Amino acid sequence: MSVQVKEKKITVSTLLKKKAEKEKITMLTAYDCSTARYFDEAGIDTILVGDSLGMVILGYESTHNVSMEEMKIFTSAVCRGAKRAFVVADMPFLSYQTTVEDAVKNAGALIQSGASAVKLEGATDLILSVIKRLTETGIPVVGHLGFTPQYLNVLGGYKVQGKSYENTLTMLEQAKKLEAAGAFAVVLEMVPEESAEFITKQLKIPTIGIGAGKYCDGQVLVCDDILGKFSEFKPKFARRYANFQEEIMQAAQKYISDVKTAAFPDAAESFHLNEEEMKKLESYK
Ligand code: KIV
Known about the structure:
Blueprint: H1 12-20, E1 25-29, H2 33-42, E2 46-49, H3 53-56, H4 68-81, E3 86-90, H5 100-112, E4 117-119, H6 125-137, E5 141-146, H7 152-155, H8 165-181, E6 185-189, H9 193-202, E7 207-210, E8 218-221, H10 223-226, H11 244-260, H12 275-282
3-methyl-2-oxobutanoic acid (KIV) binds near residues 29, 52 and 220.
């Protein structure tokens, strides 16, 4: 009799253990059930329902327009597909920057949608209080430093952060405050490799890099970037593993041509009457 060994569900402890054992953590974004299922079955550790969905799925110009309602819908879709991977949901703009109470209510709604943790950006005093309260409430939190898309207008564009010794020390200080407040991991986005390595070495919690070099404890990329599906722009750090844009267009063009030439559908793709019913139809005058 063959015994199927099911891989254990990834938890916060699994991720912390990976850092301790110097095993890299893998994270990809996903926004729908089937993609989440494929990533889960492929063996990804963590799936981020990023508010990047505003740009790559909903066609907004930035992440600022993403609402709690949208995040809840996409989070529950992803959670229906991810059985083993640890799902983190992004808290959208203004869902946690007003009061600690708002943040608890909104983070709680994402957990009730199926996520195992939430991610939020920055390290202001309010954000630190939010992280502390969420952790006390039983909601694991991932921080996000470096280029933080919700601060796009203050940062003045998609720019690498922490480019000097002083800025790196400031980011380290922020990361340590996130860790002390209870965050169990921190995303470092668009940070020089050397700065990210320095910060990674000083923290007990794992760093997950995106455009932050190879020394982070883990890596995250946006799924539409790795699949070659998002074509508005290609960040320098986003490696493409497939060309879905081309494949989707080729499939659509072939379909259009098959429909126009009546090559689709064929007999096997159609439903048919049995002979008796056919004869009746044929004798209809
Ligand atoms: O929203 C997102 O996809 C993110 C990643 C870029 C880390 O926050």
